[in-house]
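User: Here's a protein and a ligand (coenzyme A). What would the complex look like?
Assistant: Let me lay out the input and then the predicted complex.
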Amino acid sequence: MTNPPEILETKRLRLRKPVLEDADEILRQYAQDAEVTKYVSWRAHRSNDETRDFLRGCLEGMESRKSFHWIIDRKDDDQLLGMIATRVDGHKWELGYVLARPYWGQGYMTEAVKTLVGWALKQPEIYRLWAVCDVDNVASARVMENAGMKREGVLRRWSIHPNVGDAPRDSYCYSIIKDLERRPLSKGAGQSGKRKAHV
Ligand SMILES: CC(C)(COP(=O)(O)OP(=O)(O)OC[C@H]1O[C@@H](n2cnc3c(N)ncnc32)[C@H](O)[C@@H]1OP(=O)(O)O)[C@@H](O)C(=O)NCCC(=O)NCCS
């Protein structure tokens, strides 16, 4: 079973394992912000206890290898900017991410997603990285496009955003996959090919 690194570094960011002590900063920076939480699948937090419970869930997920979560810190000043996570389903890993509002639009999430995708596609057991975003979540769609993911289509009535309403909304589905580079079969030879990232 693939075991992701506890720390992943990008040029400006350090992705690291969460600790319960991150709760205060997560709450202060973004978890109760109505704009940040508009298109996420979880209810905005109202207290430090809720954020700690959420972090406990993240750590349990990591313990059972069902999901992996990283806090995104800026290397320059150790400022906590957000989180990025993957949910594991065999060879398919689903991405999710969130960034506090003051840090939007500076390319941080594109940088984080590119690095995580780059790591994942080098792993023999991971063949597909994918994620959904609300059809109106332009920034999230752009992050995935910038990270080399391809829009596969619209999943109608797919996602409920509890901070907006109960009715499921349409989502774009994006993915990047590891594919076989197919070569023409020569007579008597089996199919050969090497794996490469394929958008
Ligand atoms: C989605 C999110 C993570 C993007 O992070 P980010 O670091 O600001 O993204 P980047 O700076 O890498 O920008 C990616 C693109 O989105 C654009 N963008 C960033 N913020 C935007 C906004 N508020 N509105 C429209 N476009 C925006 C950038 O200009 C860039 O576009 P470009 O490549 O065409 O220049 C961030 O907006 C966020 O946390 N949103 C709330 C949580 C969320 O929606 N998570 C995803 C759930 S699917």
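Summary: Strands lie at 8-9, 13-16, 67-74, 80-89, 92-99, 128-134, 150-159, 169-180, 195-198.
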